């Protein structure tokens, strides 16, 4: 039985071409070269009476190709994610000074201007009620909207309290209560707020919009742009 005398002969038998020079700054090529070197070393040191057959060699190469392919796929996804983040940042920057519709229970009320919101009802609801409380938790106004069909329900608070006095401007908490088939539900209302600035969030947070009087919200939460 003949022995293996050169790396080049093994590459030829496997249908591969050895690289002329491995770039030290290319981890993918370095990993491939290391793999081939290990394969050659293993084959030259193998028991001549129990040589590695073609099926074993093909299986080793297939396993390496799978791992290498996963690494390349991850790199491609990382590059794509970076590109998407850059595009989102540019789009978000154009929102500064504009109003966006976002869900949330806090809303900024400007004295004398009223407060408008939207309640997304997933099903026909009864006893739809909007409860407005101030920063101390005291009830300021309760709006009884009755029975409503499914869809977006628009409502407006004129700024008057239940006592018939004008409420001061500031941050208010809005809670929606309703019943669907006799069971209580609490839909989250949506309000229009002005975008004051944009932040690039940390890992896993994405792009954040800083809304006037509300604070940061995710760009993904924006339902409409005005």
Whole-number radius of gyration?
32 Å
User: Could you say what the CATH architecture of the largest domain is?
Assistant: Sandwich
Fraction of residues in H or I helices:
25-40%
Instruction: Tell the overall outline.
Output: elongated
Helical/strand content category? alpha+beta
Which CATH class of the largest domain applies here?
Answer: Mainly Beta
Oligomer status: single chain
- State the CATH topology of the largest domain: Immunoglobulin-like
Structural topology:
Blueprint: H1 7-14, H2 27-44, H3 54-93, E1 99-103, E2 106-109, E3 115-121, E4 125-133, E5 139-148, E6 151-157, E7 170-180, E8 183-185, E9 190-200, E10 207-211, E11 215-218, E12 224-225
Antiparallel strand pairs: 1-9, 1-12, 2-7, 3-6, 3-9, 4-5, 4-7, 7-8, 9-10, 10-11
Folded structure, characterized:
It is a single chain. With 226 residues, the protein is α+β, with helices and mostly antiparallel strands. The chain folds into 2 domains: 7-92, no CATH class; 100-192, Immunoglobulin-like (Sandwich). It has 3 helices and 12 strands, in the order H-H-H-E-E-E-E-E-E-E-E-E-E-E-E. It has helices at 7-14, 27-44, 54-93, and strands at 99-103, 106-109, 115-121, 125-133, 139-148, 151-157, 170-180, 183-185, 190-200, 207-211, 215-218, 224-225. A hairpin with a 5-residue loop joins strand 4 and strand 5 (139-148).
């Amino acid at each position: 039985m003949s022995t293996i005398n050169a790396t080049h002969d093994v590459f030829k038998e496997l249908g591969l071409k050895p690289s002329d020079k491995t770039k030290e700054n290319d981890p993918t090529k370095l990993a491939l070269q290391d793999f081939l070197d290990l394969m050659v070393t293993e084959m030259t040191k193998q028991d001549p009476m129990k040589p590695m057959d073609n099926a074993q060699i093909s299986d080793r190469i297939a396993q390496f190709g799978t791992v290498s392919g996963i690494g390349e796929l991850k790199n491609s996804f990382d590059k794509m994610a970076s590109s998407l983040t850059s595009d989102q940042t540019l789009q978000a920057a154009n929102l500064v000074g504009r109003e966006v519709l976002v869900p949330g229970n806090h809303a900024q009320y400007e004295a004398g201007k009223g407060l408008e919101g939207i309640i997304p009802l997933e099903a026909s609801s009864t006893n739809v009620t909007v409860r407005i409380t101030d920063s101390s938790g005291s009830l300021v106004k309760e709006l009884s909207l009755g029975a409503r069909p499914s869809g977006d329900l628009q409502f407006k608070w004129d700024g008057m309290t239940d006592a018939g006095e004008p409420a001061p401007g500031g941050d208010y908490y809005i809670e929606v209560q309703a019943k669907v088939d006799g069971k209580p539900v609490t839909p989250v209302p949506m309000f229009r707020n002005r975008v004051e600035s944009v932040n690039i969030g940390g890992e896993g947070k994405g792009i954040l919009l800083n809304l006037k009087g509300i604070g940061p919200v995710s760009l993904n939460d924006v339902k409409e742009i005005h």
